[in-house]
Amino acid sequence: MATKYSRQREEIKAYLASRKDHPTADNVYMAIRRQIPNISLGTVYRNLTMLVDAGEITRLRVGDGVDHFDYDTSPHYHFVCTECGSVIDLDMQNIDSILKLAGAGFDGKIAGHVTYFYGVCGNCCKKENTESN
Ligand code: ZN
Ligand code: MN
Fold it and tell me: Which of 25, 60, 108, 121 allows an S-S link to 81, with CB 3.0 to 4.6 Å?
Protein backbone atom coordinates (compact mmCIF):
# COMPACT_ATOMS: atom_id res chain seq x y z
CA MET A 1 0.00 0.00 0.00
CA ALA A 2 2.68 2.46 1.02
CA THR A 3 4.51 1.85 -2.27
CA LYS A 4 1.38 2.43 -4.31
CA TYR A 5 0.66 5.73 -2.53
CA SER A 6 4.21 6.96 -2.80
CA ARG A 7 4.24 6.13 -6.52
CA GLN A 8 1.06 8.20 -6.95
CA ARG A 9 2.62 11.09 -5.08
CA GLU A 10 5.85 10.86 -7.08
CA GLU A 11 3.88 10.93 -10.36
CA ILE A 12 1.89 13.95 -9.17
CA LYS A 13 5.05 15.75 -8.05
CA ALA A 14 6.80 15.01 -11.35
CA TYR A 15 3.81 16.35 -13.27
CA LEU A 16 3.68 19.55 -11.20
CA ALA A 17 7.45 20.01 -11.58
CA SER A 18 6.95 19.97 -15.37
CA ARG A 19 4.28 22.71 -15.32
CA LYS A 20 4.65 26.45 -14.82
CA ASP A 21 0.93 27.20 -15.24
CA HIS A 22 -0.35 26.25 -11.78
CA PRO A 23 -2.67 23.31 -12.62
CA THR A 24 -5.93 22.58 -10.80
CA ALA A 25 -6.71 19.17 -9.23
CA ASP A 26 -8.74 18.39 -12.39
CA ASN A 27 -5.75 19.20 -14.62
CA VAL A 28 -3.51 16.96 -12.50
CA TYR A 29 -6.10 14.17 -12.56
CA MET A 30 -6.44 14.26 -16.37
CA ALA A 31 -2.65 14.08 -16.77
CA ILE A 32 -1.97 11.43 -14.09
CA ARG A 33 -4.70 9.16 -15.46
CA ARG A 34 -2.46 8.55 -18.47
CA GLN A 35 0.18 7.04 -16.14
CA ILE A 36 -2.18 5.48 -13.59
CA PRO A 37 -5.47 4.76 -15.43
CA ASN A 38 -7.51 3.58 -12.41
CA ILE A 39 -6.70 6.54 -10.14
CA SER A 40 -9.69 8.61 -8.95
CA LEU A 41 -10.02 12.37 -8.68
CA GLY A 42 -10.50 11.92 -4.91
CA THR A 43 -7.18 10.08 -4.64
CA VAL A 44 -5.43 12.78 -6.65
CA TYR A 45 -6.95 15.43 -4.41
CA ARG A 46 -5.94 13.55 -1.24
CA ASN A 47 -2.35 13.21 -2.50
CA LEU A 48 -2.23 16.91 -3.40
CA THR A 49 -3.43 17.79 0.11
CA MET A 50 -0.77 15.53 1.67
CA LEU A 51 1.94 17.18 -0.43
CA VAL A 52 0.68 20.63 0.60
CA ASP A 53 0.62 19.61 4.28
CA ALA A 54 4.18 18.25 3.95
CA GLY A 55 5.30 21.58 2.48
CA GLU A 56 6.41 19.93 -0.78
CA ILE A 57 4.02 21.93 -2.98
CA THR A 58 1.92 25.08 -2.49
CA ARG A 59 -1.83 25.44 -2.78
CA LEU A 60 -2.88 28.73 -4.38
CA ARG A 61 -6.20 30.46 -3.90
CA VAL A 62 -6.45 33.28 -6.40
CA GLY A 63 -10.11 34.21 -6.16
CA ASP A 64 -11.45 32.01 -8.96
CA GLY A 65 -12.94 29.47 -6.56
CA VAL A 66 -10.60 26.65 -7.68
CA ASP A 67 -7.43 25.47 -5.94
CA HIS A 68 -4.29 25.69 -8.04
CA PHE A 69 -1.05 23.86 -7.23
CA ASP A 70 2.52 25.10 -7.52
CA TYR A 71 5.71 23.02 -7.40
CA ASP A 72 7.62 26.21 -6.58
CA THR A 73 7.32 26.66 -2.80
CA SER A 74 9.57 29.72 -2.65
CA PRO A 75 7.78 32.98 -1.74
CA HIS A 76 6.46 34.63 -4.91
CA TYR A 77 3.35 36.43 -6.13
CA HIS A 78 0.73 35.46 -8.67
CA PHE A 79 -1.43 37.17 -11.24
CA VAL A 80 -4.78 35.77 -12.39
CA CYS A 81 -6.26 36.78 -15.74
CA THR A 82 -9.94 37.71 -15.54
CA GLU A 83 -10.31 36.90 -19.28
CA CYS A 84 -8.69 33.45 -19.68
CA GLY A 85 -8.13 32.37 -16.06
CA SER A 86 -4.35 31.95 -16.46
CA VAL A 87 -2.38 31.99 -13.22
CA ILE A 88 1.05 33.50 -13.85
CA ASP A 89 4.15 34.04 -11.66
CA LEU A 90 5.01 37.71 -11.16
CA ASP A 91 8.63 38.81 -11.12
CA MET A 92 8.51 41.46 -8.42
CA GLN A 93 10.02 42.51 -5.10
CA ASN A 94 8.77 41.13 -1.82
CA ILE A 95 5.99 43.29 -0.34
CA ASP A 96 6.15 42.14 3.28
CA SER A 97 6.49 45.81 4.23
CA ILE A 98 2.69 45.76 3.81
CA LEU A 99 2.62 44.10 7.27
CA LYS A 100 3.92 47.33 8.83
CA LEU A 101 1.25 49.35 7.04
CA ALA A 102 -1.44 46.94 8.19
CA GLY A 103 -0.13 46.92 11.76
CA ALA A 104 0.23 50.69 12.09
CA GLY A 105 -3.35 51.28 13.22
CA PHE A 106 -3.98 47.89 14.79
CA ASP A 107 -3.40 46.74 18.38
CA GLY A 108 -2.98 43.03 17.62
CA LYS A 109 -0.15 41.10 16.00
CA ILE A 110 -0.16 40.77 12.20
CA ALA A 111 1.45 37.46 11.20
CA GLY A 112 1.12 37.46 7.41
CA HIS A 113 -0.81 38.37 4.31
CA VAL A 114 -2.21 36.64 1.25
CA THR A 115 -1.91 38.72 -1.90
CA TYR A 116 -2.70 37.99 -5.52
CA PHE A 117 -3.05 40.35 -8.44
CA TYR A 118 -5.65 40.27 -11.20
CA GLY A 119 -6.36 41.91 -14.53
CA VAL A 120 -5.81 41.02 -18.19
CA CYS A 121 -2.74 38.92 -19.10
CA GLY A 122 -0.35 39.78 -21.94
CA ASN A 123 -1.85 37.21 -24.33
CA CYS A 124 -5.40 38.47 -23.79
CA CYS A 125 -4.22 42.09 -24.19
CA LYS A 126 -2.71 41.14 -27.57
CA LYS A 127 -5.93 39.39 -28.62
CA GLU A 128 -8.01 42.44 -27.67
CA ASN A 129 -5.71 44.63 -29.74
CA THR A 130 -5.84 42.45 -32.85
CA GLU A 131 -9.62 42.04 -32.60
CA SER A 132 -10.23 45.78 -32.42
CA ASN A 133 -7.94 46.48 -35.39
ZN1 ZN B 1 -5.54 35.95 -20.24
MN1 MN C 1 3.90 30.20 -8.87
Answer: 121
Cα 79 to middle of ligand 2, angstroms: 9
Third-level CATH fold of 75-133: Dna Ligase; domain 1 (3.30.1490)
Tell me how far the alpha carbon of residue 120 lies from the centroid of ligand 1, in angstroms.
5
Q: What are phi and psi of 29, to 5 degrees?
A: -60, -50
Task: Please list the residue range(s) of the chain that carry CATH number 3.30.1490.190.
Answer: 75-133
pLDDT in tens, the chain (133 residues): 456 668 899 999 999 999 999 999 999 999 999 999 999 999 999 999 999 999 999 999 998 899 999 999 999 999 999 999 999 999 999 998 999 999 999 999 999 999 999 999 999 999 988 887 6
* H helix count then E strand count, the chain: 5, 5
Q: What's this model's pTM, rounded to 2 decimal places?
A: 0.86
- Ligand lying nearest the CA atom of residue 126: 1
Distance, CA 100 to ligand 1 centroid (Å)?
Answer: 33
Closest CA to 67 of 94, 32, 41: 41
